[in-house]
């Protein structure tokens, strides 16, 4: 049997197969009747073409891959959604059930039996995103393919893999499938992300830490080891705990960055490998994803570094300061130059693999007299808001180096710029709210969501389960992230999801 997994761009996958002389052998294998399981790009290559590339696919499934319509939803489609069965196996050995599965893609095979009637025999499940139905899995004879990632879909995904491995060639039902129904709302869930800031302590060991306003060292009055890096646990063990507690995604941010060489001296690669062996939800890795040069003069591109993380088990990479510099170049030149880390990684692995971590801070101005370049982005303090914000106005300025350096770039300019460059998701932090426990900065989140069409992860400020309810009820954020309150066990992930369920917010339980 052959399993073809992967996250990537359609054209890159096809050209890779062609350049290595594997495209025709793959087609011959599939047509031979031997078991084939394609995951994500491994399913998409079965189709005849993709609007992502001019290269043809294998044309095993007579239907094209197309870009999602972004008029009513964020693209990429990212998160946990359902898979509605159309054609159950004739012998009841059905691997797909009614669980949620994890999706991360911008292109899909749209459900259109009138236009592509010969593809209908292949359709196994459909999924709704926005007001579009797409083919989320295909199954016919020896071929099974899923647009979702069973290997990142927790227990449901592992059960699906086990069922297919036990019976890869289950016969199809002879009954005509019932056409899917378009619902008023799709079933994409809101995501709860557990984030771990990882750095080396003074002994060189990697630990999970958390700081107040980015200061990760202990205070003299709170511990006998004053000045030591705050140690909240080992990254792999803590990640496993959050996976067991029901986190929808995990984010590991390497705030030490590279010591000598991004590939030869990178302890985070070992962390990712160890975590991926036992954690079956998506992993985002950040820190040092940039072009560098080894001590011996060997250049290392951001694409190389990202590739090493993906091969180790990461699903997405997070880019911080380098994204700010890239947008500054974009503004100066007035066009993309194709050299930024965002562009090079998205070109090979797809935009869904690139997250940009944004660290803005408020800049207060006089609302009566301000005529600066960010007048259209000003936020006015609400009369019923926090007392220290009433009557004030501010815009959000971007920073680099963990908030230590401000740049002449607003958060809207940065968000729109990284979307133009090819980022697939924004991790939206708030320097003003970090570590305060006052709740997410709703004004900031709404401002960014109003200006971009890619998913946004709300971060910084969560202090209670009610803050998660508030951010999903009062903004259109697709996910919410927390760190310290989870590390210190002040709030449990199960309690957050229970509160969201009680408030009518769709979550994976």
TrEMBL record:
Transmembrane portions of the chain: none
Claim: Nucleus is one of the keywords in the record: no
Assigned keywords, A-Z: Amino-acid biosynthesis, Glutamine amidotransferase, Histidine biosynthesis, Hydrolase, Lyase
Domain Glutamine amidotransferase, residue spans: 2-154
Pfam families cross-referenced by the UniProt entry: GATase, His_biosynth
Pathway(s) annotated for this protein in UniProt: Amino-acid biosynthesis; L-histidine biosynthesis; L-histidine from 5-phospho-alpha-D-ribose 1-diphosphate: step 5/9
Catalyses which reaction(s): 5-[(5-phospho-1-deoxy-D-ribulos-1-ylimino)methylamino]-1-(5-phospho-beta-D-ribosyl)imidazole-4-carboxamide + L-glutamine = D-erythro-1-(imidazol-4-yl)glycerol 3-phosphate + 5-amino-1-(5-phospho-beta-D-ribosyl)imidazole-4-carboxamide + L-glutamate + H(+); L-glutamine + H2O = L-glutamate + NH4(+)
Coiled-coil spans in chain: none
Listed GO biological process terms: L-histidine biosynthetic process
GO MF annotation list: glutaminase activity; imidazoleglycerol-phosphate synthase activity; lyase activity
InterPro entries, sorted: Aldolase_TIM, Class_I_gatase-like, GATASE, His_biosynth, HisF, IGPS_HisA/HisF, Imidazole-glycPsynth_HisH, RibuloseP-bd_barrel
PANTHER family for the chain: IMIDAZOLE GLYCEROL PHOSPHATE SYNTHASE HISHF (PTHR21235:SF2), IMIDAZOLE GLYCEROL PHOSPHATE SYNTHASE SUBUNIT HISF/H IGP SYNTHASE SUBUNIT HISF/H (PTHR21235)
Similarity comment: Belongs to the HisA/HisF family.
Name of the protein described by the UniProt record: Glutamine amidotransferase domain-containing protein
Provenance organism: Sphagnurus paluster
